[in-house]
Amino acid sequence: MWEYTDKVMDLFYNPQNQGTITDQKEGEKVVSGEVGSIACGDALSLHLKVNEASGEILDAKFQTFGCASAIASSSALTAMLKGKTIDEAMKIKNQDIAGYLGGLPEEKMHCSVMGEEALEAAIFKYKGIEVEVHEEDHEGALVCSCFAITENKIKRVIKENNLKTAEEVTNYVKAGGGCGSCLADIDDLIVSVYETPEPTQQVATTTKPAKLTNLQKITLIQQVLEQEVRPVLAEDGGDVELFDVDGDRVLVTLKGACGSCSSAMATLKGAIEATLKERVSESLVVEEA
Fold first, then answer.
1. What pLDDT score was predicted for residue 204?
2. Cα distance from N-terminal residue to C-terminal residue, the chain
C-alpha cells in the first residue's frame, strides 16, 4: 500500500473542480487538453476558461479516469491554475503539482506528469498552435509497446526529472510497467542521456556591422577593448585604455607590463589593432597616445 499525504487523501475524497465548463461569456475562451487513454489505465481532460483580454485563467476543471493520485493531482492542478495568466501557467511543471500535494509516491509520479502534459495541450490549443504537445514524443523508435512510449519521450522525462534508474522511468511515464521486456532498453537510454554532453554555450563575440556612425564606432571600439583585448593583456600583467578616436586613428595608452615592455609595438599592432580590424573596421589604425 502506498503512503499518501493528507493533502492527496483530502483531494481524493473531496476533489475540487471536477467536471466540464459550460458557461462562456463574450471575451472568454474555453479550451481543453487531453492526454492518456483508458486502455493505458489513465486519462485526463483538463478544461480552462480564459479571459482573452488579460490572458487570466478564470476557471479550471478536470475529468479523469485513474487512481487516487490521478484525481488528487488533477484537482491540485486546477486549484493552482485559477487566477494565473496563461504565461504563468506555462511555467507549472509536474514537480510543482507533486509539491502542492506534499509529495507523491514515486510509483505515482506519472499522474503529475499527466497533469503537466494536459496543461500544455490546453495552452497549445488556446494559442492556436496546431501541433501536438511535445510533438517529438511521438517520433523516434517505440520502446514500450505496452504503453506506446517512444525513445524521445523517455529521454525527455529522464532529463526533466533527473531520473537514474529504469524503475524511476516507469514511475514517471509507465514505460516498462507492463511486460517488462523494454527495461534493458530503458537502462541503455539512461546511460545515453548522461553520457551525451550538453552543448556548450559559446561566448558571444562582437560582430562587425556593415556600416557605423562615429558614435557607434567609438562605442564598439570600447566594447571590443573591454571584452576581448583587456582580458588577454591582463594575463601577462598588462592593460590598455582608450585615449581618443580620430577618424580611423585609434589612440590608446598602454599600462602595466605593456607600458614598459619592449614588445609594445607588437602588442599595439598584433593584439589590439588586428582585433579591432576584425571586429570593427578594416581601416582602423592603432597608435599609442
1. 45
2. 81
